[in-house]
Amino acid sequence: RRSRVRLPPGPTGLPFLGNALDIPPSHQWTTYVEWSKKFGDVMHLSALGRHLIILNSLDAARDLLEKRSSIYSDRPKFTMISDLMGWDWAIQFMSYGPRFKLYRSNVVAPLRKQVLHRYHPIQIREARQLVLELYHSPGECLPLIKHASGATMMSILYGCKNGQKRNDYVHLADAATESLVIAGNVGKYLVDLIPVLKYVPKWFPGAEFQRQAREWRKLCLSLIDIPFTDVKQSLANGTATPSLVGYMLEDEDKQPDHDHLIKATAGVLYLGGADTTLSAFYSFMLAMVLFPDVMRRAQLEIDSVTKGERFPDFTDKAALQYCNCLVLEVFRWVPAVPLGVPHQSNEVDEYRGYVIPKQSIVMVNAWSILHDERVYPEPSRFNPGRFMPNSMESGQLDPREVAFGFGRRTCPGVHFAEDHLWIIFVTILAAFEIRRSKDETGTECSLPSHDYKVTSGMVSVPEFFPCDLIPRSTSLIHFLEQEND
Ligand code: HEM
């Protein structure tokens, strides 16, 4: 019977190992583009007995993950992460089912478009705070941006404006997410392939993974417990500042297990939002360094609205069309999640005459769709103009439809991310020229515009690149300093 089953085409693998040795250890999306030229946009791979389906086109992704979402909304099981390290509250890793639906509805509620205005004052304050920090420590540009990404999320979630407490939360979150990145390496822990090993006791010889998981579990639980308890306490003392967790705690409509759901929601939002928005922020900085004409056009647009006398805010959004398109182009140019988050099929399916086995891991190559030159002419060029209404190139696919995933697992943070990045980008552009760094001799560092490097992993980020920030108007900065006093 097996010989009659026609799997989608793909490179021939070895017995049992399958394509495990063919799949490159990093930047798989570029290899998948090459393979898809030979095997087509629906490709089959296998690794250690698991079926892997790679979708390299929008049509295939929509056909399966959206039109057949009842089959393709599950996630592969990460036993090490979910069962042993304690991340079973994170919907990102949760199997599709009633528990997932309950947790996801709690995550979606605070991210609805209608309530996003609640976070605008915090987002504006944090963007301006960052401008001041960059002004005072221009040499620290990229580390400051990294810290600010996590810190802004912490402010929104828990209301901590600044200070040691917020830094501690960010460091805790960094350590917890670092453990996730290590454990998320498919194949690193045998327990992910043989889940029954999770019952092996910690003292058993060779059960090092159990001892490691116990250490990491402490980080995972502290991440959701400590800041949550602080907010609860400050609400009780009457010292709380507005925060997403505060809003949820004050919500009259209490569900059973209310506190745990709120803790989980805040943890999920941090996990979903911090690294992805950091990636987009770095991509923006890199794009401004490599494409100064784009920066100038965006700055002209901002100046035409603010007259250079104030910083832009959300009321200016409708007037800043080019800046809005700039955010879209960031999502397209360096997709933060180039291979999406893997889905899993929960029954056997047939597509275009091929069989997709039950429990196949299904991945969409977002990078290849967003860099397809048939859809986006000159895909390596950072060109927000391609999305401007009435431009020669307008009518191109909205990158949000790809970069944020598909179907019932699509990213609930898309509108939040857009606002979050928009206000940071326009505030930075109003304040600074962003340029390539110069060396001691005054020569600009060379950075090839089509050969920038990005890190590999589920979330991909442009690699370090030296850049300088030159204030555009000292009076604007002084205005911020007075505001801050
Ligand atoms: C540049 C910004 C972002 C990008 C590119 C991005 C992209 C994605 C992608 C590709 C997925 C997987 C979708 C799928 O499985 O089909 C996802 C899931 C998710 N994202 Fe985002 N995201 C971003 C920002 C955010 C933000 C700001 C939040 C929250 C504040 C967030 C929360 C989540 C959550 C909770 C999930 C899991 C959804 C589920 O499994 O049901 N994301 N995101």
Automatic annotation (TrEMBL):
Needed co-factor(s): heme
UniProt superkingdom: Eukaryota
Keywords, sorted A to Z: Heme, Iron, Metal-binding, Monooxygenase, Oxidoreductase, Signal
Gene3D superfamilies: Cytochrome P450 (1.10.630.10)
Binding-site residues for heme, renumbered to this chain: C411
Single annotated GO MF: heme binding
Pathway stated in the Swiss-Prot or TrEMBL entry: Secondary metabolite biosynthesis
Family listed: Belongs to the cytochrome P450 family.
Entry protein name: Cytochrome P450
Native species: Neolentinus lepideus HHB14362 ss-1
